[in-house]
Amino acid sequence: MKKLILGLLVLSVMLFGKTLKAQTATSATDLYTSHNKGKIFVYWGWNRGYYTKSDIHFTGSDYDFTIKDAKAHDKPKPISFKNYLQPDRVTIPQTNFRIGYFISDHYNISAGIDHMKYVMSYQTANVSGYIDVSSPVGDEYNGVYDNTPTQIDDNFVHLEHTDGLNYVNFEFSRYDDLGKLLGFGWNTDIFQINITEGVGIGALVPKTNATILDRERYDQFHLAGFGLSLKQGINFTFFKHFFVQVEAKEGYINMPNIRTTHSRSDKASQDFFYFQPSIMFGGIFRL
């Protein structure tokens, strides 16, 4: 009898263990975070911008010159509640906005805008071309330039895309649950870590603040060119729906049609590479 009872006890434990294992597997499969297909996400955040040197070509009815290897920097706002969280000022800093849809558990498509800021630095740079201004304003720069070292300041040329260097783009990205890849078994509906990679393409619609030989600036949004980008990031999702995402984006920008003054004959062109680290806060929900 004792052997029979012991045998039944062992059999019961084995059957219960199998049942518990099956229930655990089923519950893991049924977790909200175990599948992404059909979900939408949206985020808002902030970025920094780092730019390579570029040749900036300026043309007009009485000038045609190029500033060689021009250096530039971004223009972040000081960190404060007013600059970053006050409702009527949230679009003033360097910001990122994106909305997307998961077409499968691992892949999503999205549209967004990277609002960067680009300021040509004050510097001494080589200039090639000519200036032949007839008006008294700016005529001190008349002449032929042949890789001539020239002081770049507001009296000569000022150029910045600070409202901003707007990259309106579409991305195709992949997401993977890092915990699952590493074999961790925590409840991802409470906390999940994802890695993401993506490619993007889009248009540059800057609002350029440019002063060329003291002429009145144009200062309107305009279609100036195109951009390409790659990104890598890590996503921390909390309680199924809320996340913090940190990204590093590298890209190429080509703007052959930058409006500089109210005269349509005045324009500039440039191309350069950039690096953009950013941090975003968002939500993800199923339709």
How big a fraction of the residues is strand? over 45%
What percent of residues adopt helix (DSSP H or I)?
10-25%
- General shape: elongated
**Helical segment tally?**
3
Amino-to-carboxy terminus distance: 59 Å
Could you state the order of secondary-structure elements as H and E? Answer: HEEEEEHEEEEEHEEEEE
Q: Please state the average pLDDT score.
A: 88
- Low-pLDDT regions: 1-26
Q: Structural class of the secondary elements? A: mainly beta
Give the tally of β-strands: 15
How is the main sheet built? 8 strands, antiparallel, barrel
Work out the radius of gyration: 28 Å
Strand order of the largest sheet: 1-6-7-10-11-13-14-15
Describe what this molecule looks like in 3D.
The chain has 287 residues and is mainly β. 13% of the residues lie in helices and 56% in strands. Strands 1-6-7-10-11-13-14-15 form an 8-stranded antiparallel barrel. A hairpin with a 4-residue loop joins strand 6 and strand 7. Mean pLDDT is 88; it is low at 1-26.
Question: Can you tag this structure with a few keywords?
Answer:
287 residues; mainly beta; eight-stranded antiparallel beta barrel; 13% helix; elongated; disordered N terminus
Structure summary:
With 287 residues, this protein is mostly beta strands. Helix content is 13%, strand content 56%. It has helices at 2-29, 81-84, 178-181; strands at residues 39-47, 50-51, 54-60, 63-70, 72-73, 95-102, 107-120, 123-131, 143-152, 157-177, 191-204, 208-212, 225-238, 242-259, 267-286.
